[in-house]
Amino acid sequence: MTTLAGKVDGEVDTDSHAELLARYLRIRSQTERLVDPLSAEDMQLQSMADASPSKWHLAHTSWFFETFLLRPNVADYRPYDPDFHHLFNSYYNSLGTPFQRPQRGLLSRPDLESVFAYRDSIDRQMVELLEAGFLPASIGKLVALGLNHEQQHQELLLTDIKHAFSINPILPAYSDTRGDDDPAETAAPLSWLPIAGGIQRIGSEGEHFYFDNEGPAHEQLLQDFCIASRLATNGEYLEFIRDGGYREPRLWLSDGWAQLQREKRESPLYWQQREGQWYQFTLAGLEPLCHGEPACHLSFYEADAFATWAGKRLPTEFEWEVAACQLRRPDQLAGANLLEKGNFRPLAAGPQQQFLGDLWEWTSSAYLPYPGFRPSADAVGEYNGKFMCNQKVLRGGSCVTPADHVRISYRNFFYPHQNWQFTGIRLAGDTL
């Protein structure tokens, strides 16, 4: 199958077998730790059609392993609950009609206790499968896909509950801890980094895991360009607002300006003014706006308007990948603000270039297939390929992306109007 990297025949060796099992147990337990601060009522919330309840995330990630690993590979497998196949199917139409996404919050039954029992049952059977004496490489690769899929839902769980809490007038905190790092008020000075163009290798290939939309690796011709050493900050974005950025139609793409007028918005999602001071809602609750932190939760339209105002542009995804490969230190995974450390916020840039693990960075590139891309013919082929229309590519991972889930070739994608994810801005230019 083409959805996963590497070969699909052969057998997983003993060392890899043990590593895969350990990784499975670690990632599954990480998901459950993320819901520890939440009540059963919290986990039922669905604040908009793009979001899902935490309880649904817990169930759907288990549905994935049941559907793609246990059903096909366990003799005489009996589904945990036949109704779950419909309730927790996300968008796999070739497997049946999924329950409507905007109504997931109405699923009060099964209750939370039943969902945790479902997870426990799936985990027990998955451990048995992974401890089997013979494990074909095709199964190992599907497990790797399922684990990366679960890590995507760990990120979604946090972004979705943040949006739900932001609507509550008391603005509750998901977590009172900032993690190991306090936010710095000022960021490192911005510098413009020159990048040579030419024919560049783009995309992923080899035996390591990557999603199918990251390949095939191919060549792209780029012109010389320059790229910002860090993300745009809250302070810089505040200058854009004070300069009338939300009132000047010439800065905005037509669809973005139309959205702005419909929503009557004058600042980013989660920003608000109180007695003349700016605040930002975070997973730690409402806090004074930190000017040095990267500006966050911006739509593509906001990012593009800011770039136009600044006299620059957004990089293409190919420029971003080449720049990240050339400029990022091999041991650097951005500002130490990773999900595992519990910061749940982007940190002000230090002396090293920010490229991974702060915010998903909008690019100007449409989400389209690479040359030679072919989704697999089975249901797993619905994972990425069918969404290659009307969306934009984002790169770099965010502060709520698990550390071992971030990589330079990772292509995230969202619609231009969406802003509830941890998304930000890196500027680029044609010349210095």
How are the SSEs placed, and which strands pair?
Layout: H1 14-34, H2 54-73, H3 84-87, H4 112-130, H5 137-167, E1 192-195, E2 198-202, E3 218-222, E4 225-228, H6 234-242, H7 254-263, E5 271-274, E6 277-282, E7 285-288, H8 300-309, H9 317-327, E8 360-366, E9 392-395, E10 412-414, E11 423-424, E12 428-429
Parallel strand pairs: 8-11
Antiparallel strand pairs: 1-4, 2-3, 4-12, 5-6, 6-7, 8-9, 9-10
Counted beta strands: 12
Structural class: alpha+beta
Distance between the termini: 44 Å
Average of per-residue pLDDT values = 91
Quickly name the level 1 CATH class of the largest domain: Alpha Beta
User: Helicity level, as a percent range?
Assistant: 25-40%
Beta-sheet strand percentage? 5-15%
Low-confidence stretches: 1-9, 334-338
Please give the largest β-sheet.
Answer: 4 strands, mixed
Order of helices and strands: HHHHHEEEEHHEEEHHEEEEE
- Fourth-tier CATH superfamily name of the largest domain: paralog of FGE (formylglycine-generating enzyme)
Judging from the principal axes of the Cα atoms, what is the shape?
globular
Helical element count? 9
Plain-language structure description:
This protein has helices spanning 14-34, 54-73, 84-87, 112-130, 137-167, 234-242, 254-263, 300-309, 317-327; strands at 192-195, 198-202, 218-222, 225-228, 271-274, 277-282, 285-288, 360-366, 392-395, 412-414, 423-424, 428-429. With 432 residues, it is an alpha+beta fold. It has 2 domains: 14-167, Up-down Bundle (Four Helix Bundle (Hemerythrin (Met), subunit A)), CATH 1.20.120; 192-429, paralog of FGE (formylglycine-generating enzyme) (Alpha-Beta Complex). The strands form 4 sheets. Strands 10-9-8-11 form a 4-stranded mixed sheet. Strands 1-4-12 form a 3-stranded antiparallel sheet, with helices on one face. A 3-stranded antiparallel sheet has the order 5-6-7, with no helix packed on it. The termini are far apart. 41% of the residues are buried.
